[in-house]
Design a protein that fits this description.
It is built from 3 helices and 2 strands. The chain is mainly alpha-helical and about 200 residues long.
């Protein structure tokens, strides 16, 4: 009979130890993959949330700019009607002196950051903008720059309108609301209702 030698490498105990080591490595690898998958899922969730917030903010901004455009159109139409009324009354004055006392168009123009469709392309002329394609500055610019068109002025305005809206209506004013030291804020006068008349 040949003698069977049991070595440490082929004993049952050694096999069990090797199997246990393999299971531990496989478990560790599975856990590492699970952690990576969880991390990727969390990042995807965060990215999706950020994208949703971006879409919401973009939609809010687009809506606000649309309303700003409509308000500007209403205001400019009202200002034109005021100007037309003043000019008409000047021409048809009952006094025969050809003028109105104390009534001028400039007194009825309020401060207002307006929506604009056209913007000057010239260097340092970015503040020149408006909604009238027949304005003198538009005609002058297009005449002096024959390679440019109204579409270029529109494109320039489209590229800056969102920033202009944010600067005009969303960014907080850095100036203090208080006047000089010790002064109180001036009390705002109530808006006059033109439909109400003094009895």
């Amino acid at each position: 009979m040949s003698e069977i030698k049991f070595t440490a490498e082929n004993s049952q105990e050694a096999k069990d130890k090797r199997d246990l080591d393999k299971r531990k490595k496989a478990t560790a690898a599975a856990e590492a993959k699970a952690q990576e998958a969880l991390k990727a899922a969390r990042k995807a969730q965060s990215d999706a949330k950020d994208e949703l917030n971006r879409i919401r903010k973009e939609a809010q901004l687009e809506q606000s700019i649309r309303v700003w455009k409509e308000i500007t159109a209403i205001k400019e139409k009202a200002e034109q009607e005021i100007l037309d009324l003043i000019e008409y009354e000047k021409a048809h004055t009952v006094t025969g002196q050809g003028g109105l006392k104390g009534i001028t168009a400039s007194k009825f123009k309020g401060e207002f950051s307006r929506h604009y469709l056209y913007q000057h392309l010239g260097k340092g002329k970015g503040q020149t903008k408006g909604n009238d394609e027949n304005a003198d500055w538009v005609k002058t610019y297009l005449k002096e720059n024959p390679d440019k068109s109204l579409a270029d002025l529109i494109t320039k305005a489209d590229n800056t309108i969102a920033k202009s809206f944010i600067a005009s209506f969303i960014r907080k004013n850095s100036k203090s609301t208080k006047g000089t030291k010790g002064d109180k804020k001036s009390k705002k006068e109530p808006v006059v209702d033109v439909n109400k008349r003094a009895q």
